[in-house]
Amino acid sequence: MGDTSEMYYPSSSFLITNNESNIFKDKKADENELSIGLIKSAKRTGQLSLCNRGLGTVPENVWKIDELVMDDTREVDFARSDQSNWWNCEPLKMLDLSSNVVNTISPNVKLLQELVTLKLHDNALTSLPAELGQLKNLSNLSLDHNKIKELPIEFYKLTELRWLSISHNELNIIQADFGDLVMLTFLDLSYNKLPSLPPGMGYLVRLVELNLSHNELMELPPDIVNLRDLKKFNISNNNLKKLPPMGELRKMEILDANHNDIKQLPDFYGCTALKEIYLANNFIKEITEEFCDQIQHLNVLNIRDNQLEVIPENISLLKKLKRLDLTNNNLNKLPRNLGLLSQLQSISMEGNKLSFVRQDVIRGGTDRMMKYLRDRITEEVVGETRYESEWPDKYTLKKSQSLTVPSRDLTLVPDEVFRTAAEAEVHIVDISRNKLQAFPKGISILSDTLSQLILSSNSIENVPSEISRCCHLQFLDLAKNCIADLPIELGRLINLRELVISNNKFTKIPRCVYELDNLEILLAAENQVTEINISSDALAKLKKLAVLDLTNNSIISVPPELGNFTHLRSLELMGNCFRQPRHAILAKGTASILSYLRDRIPA
Fold first, then answer.
1. CB burial of residue 155 (10 Å; 0-12, 13-18, 19+)
2. How many Å separate Cα 222 from the centre of its chain?
3. Element (H, E) at 141
4. Which residues pair with 119 in a beta bridge?
5. Do residues 250 and 227 make contact, with C-beta atoms less than 8 angstroms apart?
6. 274, 255 in Cβ contact below 8 A?
7. Cβ contact 202:228 at 8 Å
8. What span, in angstroms and rounded, lies between the C-alpha atoms of 308 and 284?
9. Mean pLDDT of residues grouped by 10 in the chain (603 residues)?
10. What is the largest CA-CA distance in the chain?
11. Fewer beta carbons under 10 A from the terminal one: N or C of the chain?
12. Helix (H), strand (E) at residue 348
């Protein structure tokens, strides 16, 4: 037994020696990563990159690189010109040590006095040396994806910092001295464990972008609104219960406050540059009239997954709104004027209690919902626009942003009406269900503002080429007229997204339709169309087409290649002359139709 013991201890000692040897070898390997070539390049350019080299330690000569004098100059060709001599050195200004496994930065970092950019992200750092604060010229510092829990007090002496990212660490406190970093324009503190921010953050008045997301913040310091140059402000995924008045942040363009505990909208009066607001997953119950009045320039409003019960009628003031997400709230009705948002490109309403709106309308996407809302306006405004004079006045047009005169037995619309509408910057014109026999010539007067034109249920036979002047047109409804063809110039309407030509006299889809690159919906039911042209210069050109309705036409056959049009979300072919696909296949819906057709494409 004694012999065994004697054998064990030497073995253990040998293992320790081996480990020490391995550590020494690893350190030596790390030192070797700083080759003579890299040193020469660094001294010539002032830049040194050792990123993604598997370093566990930083070669000591990195910190001394500005002081290095190469002893082995015997190997250097002194006959070279002075301009190309590597010893005409630049002080190190950029050092990249990112994407390694470094866990310690040497105090000797203080030797790099000319350093401007230091990249330490994606390492295993748990702390920073106090000497880092002596780098008086440091302007850009990245510390993302480490394990830093606290910054040394000397860190706040880096008063020349412009760009600082410390995201994805374990910070649970920052000192009031953070306010001394007054030159910062970009600051990312996201994905840490900060429960609060110190007073003094308001001194960072040069900040343009501030990311505080994914922390544990309960409130924002009052002086946060002093950041007058701030453009992007991300405070999502915290525990904030309210926001301070935002009016002093006059340059703020984007506010992201998703995933908090906010119960009411803050005061935005003065936020004249605000373009995007994200407030999803909070506890907000109401969009107020004041809110709509304060942010008329807004492009995006995401307020899904809240407890909204009311949307005010003056939401129509948000004339520049392009995206509106109201998903999963407690709405049971919608304001009539919502249909007046002529620039709206995306609206989401699923998960509400809108019992008076059919589910197929809600699920039908933005165009279907906006058509429903426009039709509501038509029905409700008709009675309101019957004045002693036959036409609505400029004030009424300005207020509604629409010229809505359906079901009036009109045979023509005077140009003077369109001129008044143009002065009121009308976006929507609805002259449906009248007795027009000709396309209103005055429509072109509205070419600068018109986005929706509804002329359905008249007796129009021709569409003039001047329609091409309405370059902002997104929705055109010509259904239930006597039209047999469309002018080739209509193909210039590059913004047209929905075209309705149902219930006319078309025998084929007009050639101009295939030039509408942004067309998403084509409704051509109840005509006399005999074929589906899927050639490369026809239907195949419409890459964004999602809805195609050819119900009740005279189509003799359906080309199998139509099955390759997988971008079609809805394809309606019922009531035609073809035998294949059969009714049973058509009844199963678009996916089944396309699959059936693909299976019949010749090998």
1. buried
2. 29
3. strand 140-142
4. 96, 142
5. no
6. yes
7. no
8. 6
9. 38 47 65 86 92 92 81 43 58 95 94 96 96 96 96 95 97 92 96 93 93 96 91 96 91 96 92 93 93 89 93 86 92 82 85 78 74 69 47 82 88 92 91 93 92 94 94 94 95 94 95 94 94 93 93 94 91 91 90 92 84
10. 120
11. C
12. strand 346-348
Residues in the chain: 603
Contact at 8 Å (CB) between 162 and 137?
Answer: no
Buried b (16+ CB within 10 A) or exposed e, 72-98: eeeeeeeeeeeeeebeebeebbbbbbb
- Residue 512 and residue 491: Cα distance in Å, rounded? 5
* Encoded tokens for 34: 């700083």
pLDDT of residue 85: 54
What pLDDT was estimated at residue 35?
Answer: 87
Are the beta carbons of 561 and 539 closer than 8 angstroms?
A: no
What are the distances in angstroms from CA 420 to CA 378, 393, 467, 472?
20, 8, 19, 19
Closest listed residue to residue 530, CA positions, set 561, 502, 556, 562: 556
What pLDDT shows up at residue 3? 45
Q: Which amino acid appears at position 167 of this protein?
A: S
Dihedral angle, C-alpha 352, 354, 355, 360, nearest 10 ° = -90
**Cα-based distances in Å from 300 to 208, 213, 228, 320:** 20, 19, 22, 9
Long-range CB pairs of 394-400 (<8 Å, 24+ gap) are: 394/420, 394/423, 394/424, 397/421, 397/424, 397/426, 398/424, 398/425, 400/316, 400/337, 400/340
> CB atoms < 10 A from the CB of 264, how many?
14
- Helical H segments across 33-122, by residue range: 36-45, 60-63
Taking alpha carbons only, the member of 395, 448, 453 closest to residue 420 is 395
Look up residue 387 and give its amino acid.
Y
Give the residue among 240, 357, 254, 329 at the shortest CA–CA distance from 298. 254
Helix (H) or strand (E) holding 202: none
Cross-strand pairs, 347: 324
**pLDDT for res 354:** 80
Location of structure tokens 């929507």? 428
Question: 366 near 344, Cβ under 8 Å?
Answer: yes
Residue 353: the pLDDT is 83
What is the pLDDT at residue 31?
84
Q: What is the pLDDT of residue 22?
A: 58
Token look-up 């253990």 returns 12
Tokens 């005509």 identify what position? Answer: 527
Alpha-carbon span 116 to 95, nearest angstrom: 8
What is d(CA 595, CA 564) in angstroms, rounded to the nearest whole number?
A: 9
Q: In what order do the strands lie in the sheet with 498-500?
A: 402-404, 428-430, 452-454, 475-477, 498-500, 521-523, 547-549, 570-572
Contact 294, 272 (CB under 8 A): no
Reading the block at residue 597, the tokens are 């057709």
Q: Which two tokens stand for residue 426?
A: 């009308």
Quote the CA–CA distance of 377 and 231 in Å, as a whole number. Answer: 37
